[in-house]
Amino acid sequence: MDVAKSADLNEANLRLGLDLHRELVAAEPAKNVVCSPAGIGLAFAMAWAGARTKTAAEMATTLHLPEPESQVPAEAGTLLRSLNAPRQGGSLLRVVNRLFAEKEPEAPFLVDYLDLMRKDFDAPVEFVDFRREPDKSRLHINAWIAKRTEDRIRDLLPENSLDPTTRLVLTNAIYFLGKWRTEFDPKLTAPKDFFVQKDRPTLHPMMLQKATLRHAAVEGAEVLELPYAGDELSMLVILPTAKDGLPVLERSLTATRLGEWLAALRPKAVRVLLPKFEIRYDVTLKRQLEALGMKLAFSQGADFSGLNGHHDLFIDEAFHQTFVKVDESGTEAAAATAVVLSWKSNPRPPQVTEFLVDHPFLFAIRDNRAGAVLFLGRVVDPKAS
To answer: How many helices (H) and strands (E) does the chain have?
Structure first.
């Protein structure tokens, strides 16, 4: 893990996303994986804002928070305003935060913390009854997330994820719907070989397009930018040169290298063949974040006294769910993150360039205006969900 401080919150979130991507891939190397660096980063920045002493320092390192750290909440506010501003070309991007807090905590949440959440993170607080009705509260939070993601993220919090010791759930939800600047013609979509394994192709619907697009040949890979209408958002497709080169590419990818690849992109006449795909991915993040160095926050030694003035809270678990669908017209994507804090009394554990995407690849959906990577994923098998 690169522990150097980042230049801004977007870079911090990207570094965190790359760290998590590697951890998730290591756990399930043959599976499609996708996460939301921006969503996870914002959710944990809200938790970090209530952390103190060693817990805050450890979280800041794992999250790659920029310096001075005192400016992080203000940077989060600037980022949220940029992400939620109206778009050219009809693309829809919605990023929302909310706090769900126990209505009768032993130690009431500090007014300063709640004000900070509302002012900089645009995260109002809603009081619920975790003590008496934890499952009803869980269903209410899930319904709130489903509504904000056009029902693409459902049941983020599974059964028994909340109980009477739950005191606070920090949530972030992202929804994106964008049409390609140049749509693929469905009549040209046809079955072609996709090499899930180097020597074993399988037929999969491949979309075809000829257009002037920004492309770069870099060490070990090719990079293509597919813009959405309005040019304010785009998808980057990062295709390893070798059909079995995805693991090597993933291990070497850094925020700095991605920035260099973006700078190398140049307009070219490109013939693109891209598989249609749809991914649903659901994961808990405690184990991965602990492996990345965020240990105190999940332990009985956690210090979240910035939330309520006491040392009685810790992060019980973090839930993350994503959805990405890519077809001829464009992309629909959604993500939600929930960070659950519980009471410590009862813890739980001109030349035409051919760009044939016929083997495992990476993709990222990026807000070009804000500079934020909204989604980061890999496609190993486009037939798998």
So the answer is: 10, 15
Query: Do 32 and 55 touch, CB atoms closer than 8 A?
Result: no
Q: What are phi and psi of 237, to 5 degrees?
A: -110, 120
Both 45 and 145 in a single domain? Answer: yes
Give the domain extent around 231.
Answer: 181-275+351-379
Q: Is 245 helix (H, G, I), strand (E, B) or coil?
A: coil
Same domain, 215 and 312: no
How far apart CA 19 and CA 37 sit, in angstroms, is 10
Q: Is the pLDDT of residue 281 over 50?
A: yes
| CB 330, CB 186: distance < 8 Å | no
Cα atoms in the Cβ-side hemisphere of radius 13 Å centred on 178: 29
CA pseudo-torsion sign 247, 249, 255, 256: positive
Beta-ladder partners of 376 = 35, 364
The pLDDT tens digits for 21-53 are 999 999 999 999 999 999 999 999 999 999 999
How far, in Å, CA of 72 to CA of 5, rounded?
12
Spatial separation of the C-alpha atoms in residues 275 and 382, rounded to whole Å? 7
Retrieve residue 106's tokens.
């032993």
Q: Do 35 and 141 sit in the same domain of this protein?
A: yes
- 140 burial (CB, 10 Å; 0-12 / 13-18 / 19+) is middle
Whether 122 and 247 map to the same domain: the answer is no
State residue 364 phi and psi, 5-degree precision. -140, 135
Q: What is the CA radius of gyration of the chain?
A: 21
Q: Are 331 and 235 in contact (CB under 8 A)?
A: yes
Lookup: tokens for 94 = 């919605």
Rounded to two decimals, what is the model's pTM?
0.91
Residues 165 and 249 in one domain: no
Tens-digit pLDDT profile for residues 209-261: 999 999 999 999 999 999 999 999 999 999 999 999 999 999 999 999 999 99
Pair 360, 247 in one domain: yes
| Range 273-297 burial, b when 16+ CB lie within 10 A, else e | bbbbbebbbebebbebbbbbebbbb
